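Continuing the batch. This is chain 6 of the set; chains 1 through 5 are on the previous pages. Same settings as before, nothing changed between runs. Recording input and output for traceability.
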Amino acid sequence: MSEYPEPRSNQSPDYEDEIDLRELIKVLWQGKLWIIGTTFIAAIISVAIALSLPNIYRAEALLVTDEGSGGLSNLASQYGGLANRLAGIQLPASESSQKSISIAKLQSRKFMADFMERHNIIPELMAVSAYNVNTGEVSYDPTIYDPETRIWTRDGEPPLQNKPSSQEAFLDMTDILGVTEDNETGFVTVSIEHISPLIAYEWVTWLVDDLNREMMLEATAEAQKSIDYLTDQLAKTQVVALEQVFFALIEEQMKTMTLANARDEYLFKTIDPAIVPEKKSGPNRALICLLGTLLGGMLSVLWVLIWRYKFRISEDA
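Output for chain 6:
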C-alpha cells in the first residue's frame, strides 16, 4: 500500500445546480411567443384600466398662524408659574401649541364628523361616480345613492348599514384630505382631492373657515370661563401681588375675546386661498400603463422559467 493517498479523479466543484446563461437565453427564446403575447395582453389591460379611472383634482390652501396671541404668551411666561402656584390657573397654550392642537383637531374624528354632517357632504364623498366637465355636475352611483329621493340604496352588510356611518365616512375622508406643515416656514397646507374640482375647492374653503370658527368659539368660551373664575378669586384674595396677576390676566382674556370676535380668521390666516383647479392631479395614466406592461412581462418570463425548470424536470424524473 502506498503511503501517499491516491489523487481524486474529481477535483472540480459541482456545477449541477448552476444555470447556464446560454441555456437561460435559449429557454426564453423558446418561450418568446408566450412572453410577447402575455406582455401585450397586460399592456392592453393596463391601458383599459388607466382610461377607465376618472380624473382627480386637487385644491389646496396655504395658511399661516396669526400672531395675535403674542401678548398673552408673554403674560404666560411672566406670570404663569405664579398663577399656577397661588390659584391653580392654567393659562392658554402658546401659539405653536395652538397650531399643533388645531392641526390635530382638523384631522380628528369628531371635527370631521361634525363637518360632514353640517355641510351634508357624505353623498358627494362616498357615492359620486363621474364628473361632467361641461356642466360642472356630478353623477351618483345608483347602486349606492339616489340623489332624487336622497335615499341610500346600497346593501350594507352588518355591522354596516345602508347609510354610511360617521366612522365609515371619516375613513374615506382621511384618504382625500391632506394636511402638511413646513417645518422651516411654519406654513400649513390643507388640501382635498376629488373627481370634482368644484367640490375640492368648496371643501378646502369650508374646512379652513370651520376650523377657525371652532377655535374661535373655544377660545372665547375658555376666556369667559377664565374671566368669571378670576373675578371670583379677585374678590376673595387679599394678596396685592396676586391681585396684580388677576387684573393682568383678566385684561388679556378680555383682549382675547375682543380679537376673536373681531377677526374672521382667528388662528389661521390664509396666504394663498384655494381655487378651482383646472388641471388634474391624477391618475398618472402613462405610469399605470408602463408599470402594468412591465409587470406582465416579468410575470410571463417568470412563468416560462418555472415551467422549464420545475414542471419539465418533474416530468423527466
